[in-house]
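Internal QA ticket QA-208
Title: Verify multi-chain structure generation after dependency bump
Assignee: T.L.

Test input:
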Amino acid sequence: MTDDIATGTLWTVIILLGLGSFGLRFMFTGLVGDRAMPDWLLRHLRYTAVAILPALVAPQVLWPVATDGAFDIPRVTAAVVTLGVGLVTKNVLTAIISGAVTLYGLLYLLG
Amino acid sequence: MTSSTRKSVYFQGVRDAAPFILVIIPFSTLFGVLATEAGLSVFETLAFSVVVIAGAAQFTALQLMQENVPTAIVLISALAVNLRMAMYSASLTPYLGAAPLWQRALCAYLTVDQSYVVSVSKFEREPQMTVPERVRYFLGVVTPIVPLWYGFTLVGALLGAQIPESWALDFAIPITFLAMIAPMFRTMAHVVAALVAVMVALLAAGVPYSLGLIIAGVAGMMAGAQTELWMERRGMRT
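Actual output:
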């Protein structure tokens, strides 16, 4: 990589990315407000979280950046354990701890 | 409403978001470390986290700036990673749309994956909540998350490059997201939405500017909506 990042570039990115991110976050709550949205749209929006988060995670689980994209048994196992424990217990904290223990346990054993 | 129920709605939010403390701390520390490794000053690093307040987009922008990618491309890529925030905004609109403008703006600034998911799950489960209660709950949820995001970015920047890679902090976020998703599979439509989203995400992993995520998200949402309609037509419980 790396040349140092120019200060001007950095601040341009920080400010414009900040404004842009706020714009995205405010786009609907700000502009639509309390006007009713159509049923078909609401029906799709009900599945936002349950579609976006798995889509975000799946490639990171199978091809982690930390291993340069190589399939990694500790990470995949930790992901499966986290999801499994979460499904059974419905408890976020228990699921996170189970996943972390699995990850570190396997990294230690296989490392 | 009495002031004791006001407080209790706020503190319910604080309590429901408390598990994320475990993950926000390592993740924000990692950003602080990587940003200072990339040559940012402590002040620049903290400003980045306070102004942008979006982990994945910050990591993306940082990495691309180090590779000397043109500024416009850095912005487009990082904003594409954050496009999901517009979907979160749309999804929150039926619940928060009637709040005063300044409160909506405040909640918008504070919308991150964790605050969105925890809040929207609660709003769906308890449709009788009033709009002020929802805003208070949302602010409760961000209380253990956002100040720690700032604080531990600063700690990471001050620590510098003293965190070994073997700590595997990169995996803090996938684990949190999986733990957040698990309680959300309430109906078959939710399961179908997630499965379709995962399949499309893996197939579209090569699409530039992280747009594969948005394609996968939209595909999953369409699959969920269609499954819901199909179940309704069959007279099944949704």
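Spot checks passed. The mean pLDDT of chain B is 88.
Status: verified.
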